[in-house]
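User: For a reading group we're discussing how well predicted structures match intuition. Take CtpF protein. Before you show the prediction, I'll give you the sequence so everyone sees exactly what went in.
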Amino acid sequence: MINYARQTQEEQPEIPPPVEEHIAPAPRVSVQAFCETVETAAAVQSAGEDRRLGKAHLKIQMGGMAAAIEAYRSAPTPNVIVLESDARNDLLAGLDQLATVCDAGTRVVVIGRINDVMLYRELVRRGVSDYVLAPVGPIDVVRSICNLFSAPEAKAVGRIIAVVGAKGGVGASTISHNVAWAIARDLAMDAVVADLDLAFGTAGLDYNQDPPQGIADAVFSPDRVDTAFIDRLLSKCTDHLSLLAAPATLDRVYDFGTDAFDAVFDTLRSTMPCIVLDIPHQWSGWTKRALIGADDILIVAAPDLANLRNTKNLFDLLKAARPNDRPPLYCLNQVGVPKRPEIAATEFAKAIESQPVVSIPFEPQIFGAAANNGQMIAEISANHKSIEMFLQIAQRLTGRSETKKQKSSLLSPLIEKLRGK
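Assistant: Thanks. Here is the predicted 3D structure of CtpF protein, as structure tokens, for the group to look at:
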């Protein structure tokens, strides 16, 4: 009876994970919070440690509305004021008084416990940017502040996806390039691949591109980085996919500071819906910053002990550094190498406490042919089983489903031939 129940449970269809809310990072702004309760102050403090408020300068004081009015009698107001207030009448009167000392352009977020639409309308009439019901958690504060700088009419800020190998040689670059291809082709999202391995990057080879300029030109000229400059550096691979290629030369040493890529990433966010970072397997200040600052992370691992240890270490670090984000995803690659002892996917998942998105089998012939020809797997073999796996990864990372394809007709083969000519 027990075995039957267990089997029945295992046969239930897998429920897809909920789509994570995408909150765009806030720019470099000053934020001052005036709290009345210790719980709210702790939530705001925790929010200030979130990666999306990493550029914001946050200061927290107790005393609520009265403290805010007193503070700004002789000091300029910041970009954002966060106020906690419980009483309705005191709140409205306090806001009227605050308006007399508040600088133009300052945005106000109110945290209160009164759930009343009439109060909300009064707050909007007085120029309050957002009203958040208490009790609040860190993600509520993050969402409120970040959304102040994401106007509905503005173009959505791009999602950064970081792909990194748990160990060198596990095929993380190959996976990232094919996943980006699936994002562009199957999900119809404009995407760019940024090859961050400046000395040995393979994205140019994999996409059969040899652009004269690339990401190195941006990194070594940070004062020139803007939308127009980045656009000139991009190499177009398909209608929806572009490449920011690595030079892959050894004529200089690529030593970078922690924030060397910040300007490049910020600019890409403003122009591209999806940015896939091909991060080399090395541990430095800038690689750690790129991983922690990404919206979603994919770790590529082979089924052996070193990969298991490294994946576990990455999971632990990233979960601690990103408490308000979903945990990173991981996939197993090169599974089933002949005569090689391997750790089973179930054992890998038990140690990581998370299931792999997919397990990609070891097939050196087709992957080798694609690499040598400068093609994606989908170009080599349109029906290969790994293509569906790349699409699964793309869907999990972006939260999007596959776009519906047009129904084929009897003339479709002829039309395809004409297009090829």
